[in-house]
Structure formats: C-alpha cells, structure tokens
Amino acid sequence: MPELKEKLAEQIPAIREEIKSLLKEHGNKSISEVTIAQAYGGMRGIKALVCDTSAVPPETGLLIRGIPVGQLADRLPEEVFYLLLTGELPDEESLKYLQADLRKRRKVPDYVWKVLNAMPKDSHPMCMLNTAILAMEKESVFRKQYDKGMSKDEYWIPTLEDALNIVASVPIIAAGVYRMRFGKGRRIPSNPKLDMSADFAQMHGIKDPNGEFAKLMRLYLVLHSDHESGNVSAATTHTVASALSDLYYALSAGLNGLAGPLHGLANQECLKFVLDLKKHFKGVPSNEELYKFSWDWLNTGKVIPGYGHAVLRVTDPRFDAFLNFGKTYCSEDPVFQIVEKIFDVVPKVLMEQGKAKDPWPNVDAGSGALLYYYGMKELDYYTVLFSVSRAMGVCAQAVIARAIGSPIVRPKSVTTEWIKKFVATPA
C-alpha cells in the first residue's frame, strides 16, 4: 500500500538513527534488575523488552501510542491499526486509502476452508483459527522475498504486506469458524461496502436491527488490539518473528498462547461467574446479598474472576469503556446489571480483605456479558474475537521490530544449582 508504506518509509530512518544513538551513548545503563523470585516467577516485572506501540502504566492503564485507550473508544479498528504502525491517527484521506487497501485483501484461499472442514467437528474454535492462519503461511510475501534475497533494511516492507493481508483476512476466517463450528449455516461473504468491524459483525449472522452489535464489535476490536509486548501472545509472536519466521508462523504461535486459561480465556471465566450468580440468586442479587456471597466465596480460597491485574492499580479503562457501552445499550439486562453490582461491591470487599494488590476490575470483567446479551452465547468462541483484535497489535509490533532490526530473542538461563551456589557466595 503506497500511502502507508511511504509514511513508514519516511519515519523509519529517523527511528533507526535515534535507537542507534541511544545504544551508542547509553547502551551500558541498567534499566532493570532480576531477582531470584522473578527468575522463578515468569520474569514478571523485568524491563527487558521495548514496545513503542503501547504502554500500560499502572496508574492509568493502556496507552496506545501515548493516547489513553478510552479516548479511542469511538474510533474504527482501521484507524487504530494505522495509529499502531505510524504513531499518528490517519486523516480522512489516509483512512479511506487504508480501508480501500484492506478491502482488496479481504480474501481467504479455498484450501484454508478445506483444512478446516477436515478437522474434527468438535475442534476448539481457537485451534481452528490458529490452524487456518498457519495453513496460509504459503501466502507470506516476506518468506518469498527472503528466499529470493533482500537487504535487512527492507525486511519491514514485505512484513508490512503480510501484516495487511493478515489483518484483512483474519476476521473472515474467524467469522467462518463461528459459522462452521457452531452449526450456524453457510459462511456469510464479506461485504466490501462495510468497514472492518461492521463487516466482521455481519459475517457472524447475528441479528442486529439497530447496529448495536456492530458497534460492540468495533469497540471490542479497538480495546483488545494491543497491550505492551510482555504478555504471552505478544511476547511469543515477537520471539518467533525474531527468528525471521514470517508473520503467519509467528501469529499462529502467539495466538496459541492466547488460547491458554491464564491469558485469553479470562472473559469466559468472568461470564460463567456472573451467570452462576444469576442462577444462585434466581436473578439480580442485592448489594447486601452480593457482599455476603463475595466474602463467603473468598473465604473458601477462591478469587473473584475479572478483579485484579498483574500491572494495573486502577480500574482498567477498557472495563470502563465496556461498562459505559452496557449502560447505553443494555442497562435493563439482568446479566449486565450483575456486572454493575459486582463493580459496586467487590472492590470494597477486596480492600477490606487486604490481600489484593489491585481490587479493581480488568477488561474481562464485563466484556463477556455484552457478547452474551447480543446472542453470542458460545463462550469457547470469545477468545477468537480477542485474537482478531490482538492480531492488529502484534502484527504492528512485528513490522516495527523488522524496521529497527530487532535481533533474535535469546535470553540466558541458569540452573537451580547455579542459583544455590550464587546465593551461598558472600557478597
């Protein structure tokens, strides 16, 4: 795509020079330290990655290119993808150019559907999505150009092509998986007259007379698009891509991480908790009932799903955006009302308990209830929606990593025996 490609080509030399200068002048300065607890604890909190597309300050929540995510709630996914890549929101002309280019790329090879049709009918939707992405690897522009030979300085150009093709095609695959896996009938073709999120919504075949589900898909795709590079899906995508594997290999690997219960399945668990509450109380509980239930629940050693965050120390602004959406469009729905009740009661309980570092809700605490309200009640599919959104962020990160010449990821490991000797050695 000339317009976007030219924009990046204009920016990249200055970015490379800035990084080169930083390394030359300050390369030996330490920005983090590693404790034994962190080494055994999944490297949590160690500053060892650079991600310019987004940041998650504990006191504010997600910033996409420095912009609070709440300020992007009314933007289109295409606008956010442009922002992730360039650091700027597109003007009207640039947006139209990008949308037109992505529409041309909205296609999935027939062999992908044959692969999916050959899978067991009860395959998990995430397995289907990730298999389809991996099957499309033969379409990689980067791999073909690399095999022919090209300069390292140009690696980002075919990677951008792969990123654009993936961002355009993954929604079609995801919606196709929904139709196939849950017996919804024939696949619904992409509509070239619609923007990315509206098209994604209509391909599911969910009744949407007022366009509210399309608005929810727009919000969902924007809010989940990026979240630094240290989370499992982003870090895995980056690690695989750092070996110069193309984006199809890398994204499929990253989304396999997203499929894990400790990463992308959280909104399912939150919704199950809300639905169980509704069943338990035969409707919406009072604040007093929920307060007692929460204490009883915590006293059994369980946690409240959706509350607490590894990084944040405030209410996740993405939760706020979903909450505001629910108040606008489905405030009378009992499932959503329970989500509101939990938000009113649970943080107070967690603060009284005194164990939670962050008693506030994260994005997963409310998103599932909204999907459920609009008729998407297949909980196993929710992580696929997350994947469509997250593909924008990790693909943008990969383009930038190739542009600045990020090396292969190769941290050093030590043995437990080494740790034992280290701690026994006098300082």
Radius of gyration: 22 Å
Distance between the termini: 57 Å
What is the chain-wise order of helices and strands? Answer: HHEEEHHHHHHHHHHHHHHHHH
Question: So what's the overall shape?
Answer: globular
Q: Which CATH class of the domain at 266-373?
A: Mainly Alpha
Beta-strand residue fraction: under 5%
Q: Per CATH, what is the topology of the domain at 266-373?
A: Cytochrome p450-Terp, domain 2
CATH 4th-level superfamily of the domain at 266-373: Cytochrome P450-Terp, domain 2
Largest sheet: 3 strands, antiparallel
Mean pLDDT: 96
Report the count of strand segments. 3
Annotation field: number of helices = 19
The computed structural class is mainly alpha
Widest sheet, order of strands: 1-2-3
Structure keywords:
single chain, 427 residues, mainly alpha, Cytochrome p450-Terp, domain 2, three-stranded antiparallel β-sheet, 3 strands, globular
Description:
- This protein has 427 residues and is mainly α.
- The chain has a domain at 266-373: Cytochrome p450-Terp, domain 2, CATH 1.10.230.
- The protein has helices spanning 2-26, 36-40, 77-86, 92-104, 110-118, 125-135, 141-148, 156-181, 196-204, 212-223, 232-242, 247-258, 266-281, 287-299, 317-329, 334-353, 364-373, 382-403, 416-424, and strands at 54-55, 63-64, 67-68.
- A 3-stranded antiparallel β-sheet has the order 1-2-3.
- The longest helix is centred in the middle third of the chain and has 26 residues, at 156-181.
- It is globular and about 65 Å long.
- It starts with a helix and ends with a helix.
- The mean pLDDT is 96.
